[in-house]
């Protein structure tokens, strides 16, 4: 594996994220479950917030084989561009803000995923046009995330992280036969 500057930074960010999440949590504050199901950070539990449901309803933009994928955050326009995509494990997603909104926060993520900060719609920080944020995704599964514009309106995006050893046969979970 070639250690590019972006991979080194992404790996460092992932290590920092893990270090910050390994402390003891109050059971009422930790939505992780031991049954391997996705974690929903919203108590509503509606299907319209379920990552798997969203991904099944959309054609995913294929970004497999890329080390870094750029996503525009445009609160005044289309929200996230691309809105839905698929990537390989160990891919860095890099969000770039085109207008003021909040940082990206998780809605529905795999239980193996550790989001760097314990953020949700109420605790997320503000971002300005031109700011960037990136995150390395190594846990396979369906992800749904969001941001809020200056008026507090939420816009969402979703993606699937797949095993990069499985090949590019489609959007289905290629690891079932392994």
UniProtKB/TrEMBL annotation:
- Biased region (Acidic residues) positions are 23-49, 166-178
This one is known as Uncharacterized protein
**Disordered, as annotated region:** 22-49, 156-178
């Amino acid at each position: 594996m070639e250690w590019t500057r972006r991979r080194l930074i992404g790996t460092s960010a992932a290590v920092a994220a893990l270090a910050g999440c390994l402390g003891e949590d109050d059971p009422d504050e930790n939505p992780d479950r031991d049954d391997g199901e996705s974690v929903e950070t919203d108590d509503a539990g509606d299907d319209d917030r379920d990552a798997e449901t969203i991904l099944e309803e959309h054609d995913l933009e294929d970004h497999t084989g890329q080390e870094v994928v750029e996503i525009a955050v445009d609160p005044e326009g289309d929200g996230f561009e691309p809105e839905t995509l698929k990537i390989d494990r160990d891919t860095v997603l890099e969000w770039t803000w085109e207008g003021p909104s909040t940082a990206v926060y998780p809605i529905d993520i795999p239980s193996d995923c550790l989001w760097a900060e314990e953020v949700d719609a109420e605790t997320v920080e503000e971002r300005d046009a031109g700011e960037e944020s990136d995150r390395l995704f190594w846990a396979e599964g369906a992800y749904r995330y969001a941001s809020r514009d200056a008026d507090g309106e939420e816009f969402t995006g979703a993606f699937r992280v797949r095993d990069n050893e499985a090949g590019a046969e489609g959007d289905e979970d290629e690891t079932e036969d392994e």
